[in-house]
Recover the amino acids of this structure.
């Protein structure tokens, strides 16, 4: 039932940019795209979200494709603390307006010193 | 501001027993969601409570239930525990319900069923 597709893992070197892709070909026009990450032995933490246009915050940038069928989370300079599992999440609308957050398998990011 | 707290952090129960987990949201947050995380199934949504009412529910059997109190604190109960219920149970709070919100997760309760 997962509505997003992410690579299982990615690797990066410290201080380099990281682009984490997410495919969501079944996204509807009103679905928001959320990104969370989960550091080892911790609960997930919110990173960023967007609808159509690119978004920036202190943690990351979110680039959304024009057709919205994919998005990319950009960490501008990876640090060792960014090593985590990154989840791309879509709103999963059921009848009646219910919202069921659907987490995919996530991408495990490995950062090398 | 204090984060989301969950108690207990670790729990060992025997198959057939029941268990109650507690979650205290961030002050001012009125929505509390519960998730189950296992290595095999990943992170799965259990249910969400807002203003003491269950708003959304995932695909879990009726053995999993919850409630929310007037101070927004929430409890989750699992009856007739099965070995497969061994998991990390995460609670998340947000200001309001709906799709457009930031959730803040607690550290989780690690439940082991033997």
């Amino acid at each position: 039932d997962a509505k997003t597709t992410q690579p299982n893992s990615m690797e990066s070197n410290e201080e380099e940019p990281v682009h984490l892709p997410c495919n969501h070909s079944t996204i509807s026009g009103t679905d928001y795209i959320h990104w969370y990450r989960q550091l080892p032995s911790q609960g997930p933490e919110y990173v960023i979200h967007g609808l159509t246009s690119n978004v920036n915050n202190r943690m990351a940038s979110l680039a959304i494709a024009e057709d919205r069928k994919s998005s990319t989370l950009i960490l501008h300079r990876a640090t060792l603390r960014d090593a985590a599992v990154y989840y791309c999440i879509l709103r999963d609308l059921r009848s009646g307006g219910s919202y069921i957050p659907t987490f995919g398998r996530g991408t495990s990011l490995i950062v090398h010193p | 501001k204090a984060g989301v707290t969950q108690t207990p952090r670790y729990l060992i129960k025997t198959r057939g027993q029941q268990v109650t987990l507690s979650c205290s949201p961030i002050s001012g947050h009125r929505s509390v969601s519960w998730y189950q995380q296992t290595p095999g199934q990943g992170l799965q949504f259990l249910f969400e409570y807002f203003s003491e009412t269950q708003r959304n529910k995932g695909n879990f059997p009726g053995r999993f239930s919850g409630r929310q109190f007037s101070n927004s604190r929430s409890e989750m109960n699992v009856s007739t525990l099965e070995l497969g219920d061994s998991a990390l149970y995460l609670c998340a709070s947000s200001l309001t319900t709906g799709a457009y919100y930031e959730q803040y997760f607690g550290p989780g309760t690690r439940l082991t069923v033997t």
Chain B is about 0% helix and 55% strand.
